[in-house]
Amino acid sequence: MGAATLTGATPTKGPDAPAWQCPVPASCLTGGPAAGGWCWADSAGNAGIMISAPLRLRLDSAALVSNWRALAALSGRAACGAAVKADGYGLGAPRVVAVLAEAGCRDFFVATWAEAAALAGTGVPVAVLHGAGVDDMVLALSGIARPVLSSAAQIARWRSAGGGLCDVMVDTGMNRLGIAVDEVRAGLLEGLSIDTLMSHLACADEDSAMNERQRAAFAALAGATSARRMSLANSAGIGLGRAFAFDLTRPGLALYGGVPRPELRAMRQVAYPEAQIVQRRRVRAGDTIGYNATYTARADTEVAIIHIGYADGYLRGFSNMGTARVGGAALPVVGRVSMDLTALDVSAAPALAEGDWVTMDYALPEAAQQSGLSQYELLTALGRRFAR
């Protein structure tokens, strides 16, 4: 397609992303998001050209499955599900679900009905943790997922609409979502068809007395409802021991390589951000790099400017702290991370040039310590410009 034919064209992301619809025949999509590109098609839907993506997010499927199996083993007799909210913690929920479902996972959790709709074609059981608001009822009654009802108003709405199988959240001390324990005992749930009765731990990543108080309050509800299963433990809750597992665990962060408690230190890294070099340059001794001149070169330094910045979720906490790698060489971040670009000292990699790729150090516990960000933020902040 010549440049003239692009007049009035609109960029469309490839067909693997549910938020976009690509009008171009699949035969023209030699790349697509998974292969590191987007398609540019003209307004009539004629075949376009590929636009390369200078950012990639590599997902280690084997590590993801290994983490889930390790968490399943720690869960004992309880089933082990997977929290895939926030687009699979930023890694792409449809792909995460496909990998884990093939490995044997049978319970998936999202936050919203839009997230549930994105998984409707996967055929896996999904629960929506935010329940069913007034505007959610059409989707909630469609059967694509179960609502996790968390208030008397949601329960009344579900009953009056003739809703079927649901889950229920009970508040045992976090004071976020959930009906009160006393409301359960007063019969609020009578007549509901409940698959899973849930609660959520507030301090599971700490050795807090609150953990046992919540566990005991939840355990006391055994047999008080028609629920087929009970579920309390998130990732950190699994680390607290099998007494917290009940019938179903709901790991999130640890699936993706996070380590919320020392007992889970064996979790493997899953996400590997990769960025392409825009330019290689020499910075003279005494010159500064980046906004606000926060780095001064002590000697003549080889620097690569790479296609990643805080707009991509590589946040300013990595300024003068982060590292990238190529082969066995460590390449420190020098200067302040800006919106779209970051500078690396590449003196240890003399062959690196424009167009080459580097992998950012992103093992979650270490990256959190470097940047001052939580492991959750590091994952969910990863932006839409990554080819996934």
Task: Kindly describe this structure.
The protein has 388 residues and is of the alpha/beta class. It has 11 helices and 22 strands. The protein has helices at 61-74, 85-89, 93-103, 113-118, 137-140, 152-160, 181-185, 209-219, 235-239, 364-371, 375-380; strands at 10-12, 37-41, 49-52, 55-59, 79-80, 82-83, 108-110, 126-128, 146-149, 166-171, 179-180, 194-198, 229-231, 248-249, 271-283, 288-289, 295-296, 301-306, 323-326, 329-332, 342-345, 357-360. The strands form 5 sheets. Strands 6, 7, 8, 9, 10, 11, 12 and 13 form an 8-stranded parallel sheet that branches. Strands 4, 15, 18, 19, 20, 21 and 22 form a 7-stranded antiparallel sheet that branches. Strands 1-2-3 form a 3-stranded antiparallel sheet, with no helix packed on it. α1 crosses α3 (93-103). The protein is elongated and about 75 Å long.
Write the SSE topology.
Blueprint: E1 10-12, E2 37-41, E3 49-52, E4 55-59, H1 61-74, E5 79-80, E6 82-83, H2 85-89, H3 93-103, E7 108-110, H4 113-118, E8 126-128, H5 137-140, E9 146-149, H6 152-160, E10 166-171, E11 179-180, H7 181-185, E12 194-198, H8 209-219, E13 229-231, H9 235-239, E14 248-249, E15 271-283, E16 288-289, E17 295-296, E18 301-306, E19 323-326, E20 329-332, E21 342-345, E22 357-360, H10 364-371, H11 375-380
Parallel strand pairs: 5-14, 6-7, 7-8, 8-9, 9-10, 10-11, 10-12, 12-13
Antiparallel strand pairs: 1-2, 2-3, 4-15, 15-18, 15-22, 16-17, 18-21, 19-20, 19-22
Helix pairs in contact: 1-3
Alpha-carbon Rg, integer: 24 Å
Q: Strand tally, please? A: 22
Strand content: 15-25%
Structural class assignment: alpha/beta
Helix content: 10-25%
Uncertain residue ranges? 1-35
Question: What distance lies between the first and last C-alpha atoms, to the nearest angstrom?
Answer: 26 Å
Number of helices: 11
How much is the average pLDDT?
90
Global geometry: elongated
Largest sheet: 8 strands, parallel
